[in-house]
## 1
Amino acid sequence: MRRWLLPTLLLAALLGAWQLAASSGFMAEALGLESFLVPSPAEVGEALWQNRSLLAENAWVTLREILFGLACALVAGVGFAVAMHLSRVVLDASYPLIVASQTIPIVVIAPILLVWLGFGIGPKIVVVALICFFPITVNVLAGLGAASPEAIKLMRSLDASRWQLFRRVETPAALPSFFTGAKIAVVLAPIGAVFGEWVGGSAGLGHLILTDNAQLEVAREFAAVAVLSAMALILIGSLALAERRVVTWR
Amino acid sequence: MSVSIRGLGHSYAELRTIAEIDLEVGEHEVVGLVGPSGCGKSTLLELICGLLEPSAGTIAVGDAGTGPARLSRCAYMPQSDQLLPWYSALDNAALALRNRGLGRREARAQAGELFERFGLAGFEATAPSELSGGMRQRVAFLRTLVAGKPLLALDEPFAALDAITRAEMQGWLAAALGEDPRTVVFVTHDVEEALYLANRVVVLSSRPARIVAELDSPGPRAPDRDAAVTAAAFVAVRERAMRALHEGSR
């Protein structure tokens, strides 16, 4: 109860204060702006309702980029982590490169991807996947190594093969870290999708935000931001739910 | 199955853990290893099990001399129970059978029989985290027993328990070994526990470990534990063991 009540109250208070400051014209005056450039929450809500089909259309585009990108990152990240865990050679060869690759800003790669992959959904998926790959890989790798040496000795003495050790001890031990990595990835994914749309796109919430900004449609811009973060929250919520169903022993 | 240790020495890099040990353990004999903390008792146990290889000398479990061969004849119970939190009590106990390729149902049925026999009926589906300390140790011991190996290697099986539960568990283990005799080598820091459970107690010196004394127990695994450990003969041997322990830790 308290877990929900307190943040809800705080949110209501913040929205209320914003509403007062915006509708009284205080905020616009303080910033030296025209009042339509500083929409109140009520006006944002109105823009949300009036543009619901436009927002939904664009949200669907962005959601697909996020989900496909996440799926690619999950497959590649888990696959890589398992390969590095099982093979010392793969680990020693690729781990430093994976860490080093993170120093290349995605901002630099995105325009190149556009040249290579065109203006479709492709480059957006790749940007999302690139951003999400690292937290998933690193967390899964750490999780696979988290099984206690005692448990490994025990399994050896109970005649476990390498595969049985992996399946019955290391994989379950890695699950909590996997979910940690996945949650970080889900938070980063919308950033990747929006950025991909900014670099070159004709649809999606990121694209909508960019054009609204240029056209001074500030209320709708805020509405698009609200939809984007609601989408991310739902994704994190579903992950947390899945984690509670899968990791029952914590 | 008997164990024969000749001229055994072991070191971790520069650290000499075991100086020189000669030890014979007969078929169905129970031998307790006591010694100051950090003296290499657990290392000796892991050497016998084939989890480690000696730096000098030989160890044979039956006619098995190599590490993997010893490992296939020894069931190891680590210091902490290491019950896997993602499995129920029964699935934990059945681990060795599953590793040997038995189907889940058959493995559970076989382990389940032992649950009945050893007073764990009704706890099959319980998660390890919901079991009391004593129950956890019972499940961990059954898991070792279910492995069906001729030699049991127990590392401080009851160290984590309070005095009353520990006394109870010693009685329980004595009864279990009465029903299902095995060759047992166990480590403990409790001289009374060692003398009650073992036919013979081996007192080790501080690191690098060597044998200071070997003492026969006057009444191993007597049905009335409280009477056995207060008998004059028992107290006298305990005195001698304590004195040997003090000498060895100097």
## 2
Amino acid sequence: MPLVGERDLRSLAPHAPLLPDLRAEPLTLTEVEVLQLLYEIDDSAITSLLPPALHPTIPPTVSFVFWRVRSGPWGEFELAQARVGCRAGARPRALLLRAYCSNEAAGRALAEGWGFPIVSAHVRLRHYYDRVVGEVRRGDDIVLRGELVDPEAISGADIQYIANLNMARLRGADGEALRLVQFDPEYIFHKAERGRPQVQEFDATAWLLEGAVLDWPISASYAVCDIELPRIRYLVDPARPPLEAVERVGG
Amino acid sequence: MKFGIFFEISVPRPWGPDTEYKVYQNCLEQVRLADELGFDQVWAVEHHFLEEYSHCSAPELFLTACAMETKHIRVGHGIVVCVPQFNHPIRVAERAAVLDILSGGRLEFGTGRSATWTELGGFEANPDETKKTWDEYVRVIPKMWTQERFGYRGRCFSMPKRAVLPKPLQKPHPPMWVAVTSPGTELDAAERGLGSLGLTFGGFEEQEKRIAEYRRRIRSCEPVGEFVNEQVNTVNFLFCHEDREYAIKTGQRLAGTFNYLAEQLLAARQAYPTRSYPNLGLLPALRREATSAPEGRVPEGLCIGDPDRIIEVIKKWESVGVDRINFLLNAVETIPQEEVLASMRLFAREVMPKFGVQPPSKEPAGVS
């Protein structure tokens, strides 16, 4: 059977946010700018980044996703994620262990509502005619800087975003437990572009992705879309084998 | 109705030094038996880098071995990836012609374009280009086979006049097919006079409509080759056993395993935003079919069960206009080889005669 992750979960628990409940209500953020840069990573990390519940993609990948949200219940904010491509059983998913957010209220809401493992930072997504730039800066350190180069218009229907699995802690009868929270928003596209990805800076450790070495660029896309943040429907127990790991919320 | 077998050649982990050797030997044994039992064709895919799912990167070699060990069964080279980074069109024409000669004129020639980033990225092929290069290939390859010397100034390749040698044994050339994995490609096949390979869309009713449209359109086609190959060839799973319950359980394991493996790979569409890949490649319709039924029930179109159930299913396929069914027999050796062979024997004994198929005569098939 396919390869599975071998990551020691104990090292991740302290970084996972505590999710007070699974009752997040759907919420639509309008006219969100989204930049996604997709890379193959070196296969030396094909199983070391993922927990035992997940299969790696072949080839292994990391996707960098930036959001620029101009309005909404938490005000203006920018968000950056570095996600490892994976499969939960047969389902395509992307594991998120750390995200950076420019607005504390938004970061707290995303963490408490959907298990985003948020850290505050200066996050920037800027669209230009020759490129789209995403950057995450903590103090003097740039932990991620990448671009979509030479944008060309495409249809939003050509873009497929993969759902997140956010690493979080849940409180249960037996105390706290790590769970991957499936975050699978709906997108309504208003505009889409495609180009070449170029990542200039990537501090893997700052994203809890030690050993992830960018190996080969795949694609870059930029979109303006409405994003409907979903109800939480599925969890994954990261410690269990893939075929036994998925839990339906309320089922 | 004709029946065939279809190989992805999937190899289970852990990979020992001779795991691939054993899987290939099992496949060859299945081909020899299929030949004896009266199966009409054996198809082998071309895939690269698809760990476990398919270790069939040199199908022309595998099919040559099949041809050397059999007398009757036709060899389906399909699909050949018609993308320059994978295969130069001259080499495709040459290799296919040699296979046709060595098999005694038993070649069926399938064309396609790959559907995963795993493969396209591995060869640095541009996903936007593959439909265009496929179209160019299917127009020029039959000319390379039939013209004494062939020269060409094209979009994805050019060549001064040369004799592309050898020429196929079958005249004017082997039957040509195109892999149909997304709705609409069967119409591309029809417009070019090509056989439709792998047409499997959920629901017999939907199938019937698409096949009728394929047959309507092909009547006014401009064939890329020297003749029109109006045939509809589908892919299915096969597990046949006297005990229906056991057959269904085992067949569902086969279908589930195949689907699970296919999902691990990175589809072109998941990695690269492009209009060129509207579907998630790798037999997506068959995979949808395999997972379409409620838990515990067998999807209506799958050939798994006891002979009576399978006869019923094939009659439905026949009634909607399918000419041939090719069967996937195993996935990562999830079914023991002896059970695969027993399933084939039972199918040949109890099912094939109901569709007019008998074991072959002693005379070799092909061009004499």
## 3
Amino acid sequence: MAILVDTKTRVLIQGITGAEGSRACREMLGYGTKVVAGVTPGKGGQKVEGVPVYNTVAEALAKHKEINTSLIVTPAGAVKDAALEAMAHGIPLINILAEHDSPLDTSMIVAMAKKHETRVVGPSSVGIMSPTIGKLGSIGSGETKNIFTKGHIGVVSKSGGLTGEIAVILSRAGIGQSTAVGIGGDTIEGSDFVDILELFEKDKETWATVLFGEVGGTSEERVAEYVAAKKIKKPIVAVIGGEFTTHLPQGVVLGHAGAIVSHGKGGYASKIRTMKKAGIIIAKTLEEVPDILRKIVTKKL
Amino acid sequence: MKLLEHEGKALFTKHGIPTPAGVLRTSENSGLPDAKSFVVKAQVHMGNRKKAGGILFAKNAAGAEGALKKLLGKEILNEPVKEVLVEEELKGVEEYYAAFTYDTETRGPVLLLNKDGGTGIEKAKVFPINVMEGLPGFKIREHLVATKFPSSDILPVAGIIAKLWKLFTEEQTILAEINPLIKTKDGKFVAADSKIDLGKRRLVEAMGGDIAILASGGGASLLNIDALLAAGGKPANYTEYSGNPPAHVVTNLTKQVLSQEGLKGCWVVGGTANFTDIFETIRGFVEGLREVKPKPTYPIVIRRDGPRQKEAFEFLRNVGAEEGYDFHLFGSETPMVGTAAIMVELAYKHGNSR
């Protein structure tokens, strides 16, 4: 098994006719993911890579009852509406690849998702990859076979680029992954680290997790709270970027947009201190992650 | 990106929030607001400018001009002062704190309130906002009562907070703060200072060193600058391009980053790209490089991998040989942060040899 993307995953792509949407569609089909329908208002009746396009989610669902996942690749201004449309029709998993959604729109998506009990990953998510099973989004592009290998390590990262980088480093060291999830680095995100770690916690195939976090926001501190409270027990190796920001003026936004330092949390020192205290292992570089994993995971990786 | 005080106050004016009478002074203009006493404020981004001597008070016009001379063209906390805001000094009978921002824990907007202004964001009371309901007036009034604002001030302050909410949402800011909100002797409410953060990043942040950096990816760029500093390198700048930028975007960034004098190296670095077209970004980089005068002779370390990387590196090898650039090329077989040490070694050895 894996998390979020498994053999039962049947995908709808909202925004399928755009450049990013059609590329994601091609790559996902190429990886064996079952993309069954697409939606672009006004383009109903067309086909993208052989996948039928509908004007509305309702129409797509009427023809393809098996849809259980939506990938949103619309322009930024249309993301909220697309997400609300998917939720209104009961699609339980939404992965938002689209970038530049405003924090207010994302807040509304998160509030509605709670009401509908929908799981939202993103916005600005590079995607979700369960090696050899399937993938959502642009993760790994077309060269997935060289990057992702099947195994027992969960990967969760705010950075899309580093999701791939971590997977390459693990795969070269002969360590496969159960699922890799790019949660995105926006100020407000549909799923934070804890949300994903709780899924890995329940997944029998996942033995430990590699996490990439960065300065800003409080989701790394929240992981520390959950680990300290023993709500998350599987080992975690974390890499945190942005130590240098300690020396920069306040108000300088670097990396992703999620950089609000709040309630005395969010800075580099705060993250490292609370995570170490909770027993999370901090790796200084990505390259030392495989050796650390071999030391802390007793089963043969 | 944090706005300067006067930029924030322009947004206040646009949304009907009163600000003190003021004149923005540069080295080019003159004039003072119509007032008896003045507050003279350096327009810099640093938060603690008052402590650093960036805010001066003057009892008369001559004093204000004197204070201006002390600030204009100087540096406050290493930031050059190009503009100074001269305002009427307001003597408040009350000073309040009000702000909107996003809370990453409740994953939504919050209203922050304190009946003692000037104390800052950390001591304010936090009220999460239900985005599906919005922020009706009665909610604001309930929050003001819960923060123990005096009865007589609840209606006028609620009016200003409603305007601040409109600004916060319509201008897509991630922080909109009035600190302090002053109540004057005649019962008027005025925003004496502004702090607005648009959340977006500046394209290039100067960092004062001598190794120019073109980093890809929000997360990777942070790790790479950490690694460069750890290896003893001095970054000249921070810039980062994400997603799949067209070549001309990279060209412009390259020109901007390499326009700095005294560079000893250039580091083009990123993780294993998911969907960035490496050939396109490298083509954009080379086009920018060709326009930089004088022609860069310092070492250029490139560590990139992902779609069309082979084509990109073939192109770089040809350009390097034909046009005489000192390229050093690495793919994902060399650790990303490992190329930090290579960059530092090449840059500083190279510098010494001339």
